[in-house]
Amino acid sequence: MITAIVLIQVEAEAIPDAAQAIADIDGVGEVYSCAGDVDLIATVKVSAHEELADLIPGRIGKVPGVLDTVTHIAFRSYSRADTEQAFAIGAED
Which residues form the Transcription regulator AsnC/Lrp ligand binding domain (predicted)? Predict the structure, then answer.
């Protein structure tokens, strides 16, 4: 599974509608509105890189109000829960 983080610039008045439209697209996990350099951040999960080409410019980029996207592909995931599970292997309660 390929995970990508998509930074999305949106016209200010279109942010709520664009966020919901993007969240409704298959392959999109979550959409966050945020402060800072970008208006929305979306997480995307697909099974092949070719799907990113269809999903991001083909679907997300065509949502009304979307001005630009920048995509970052994740190589590895780290979380507190993963670390705690790794240290719990073989431990007895």
Answer: 6-76
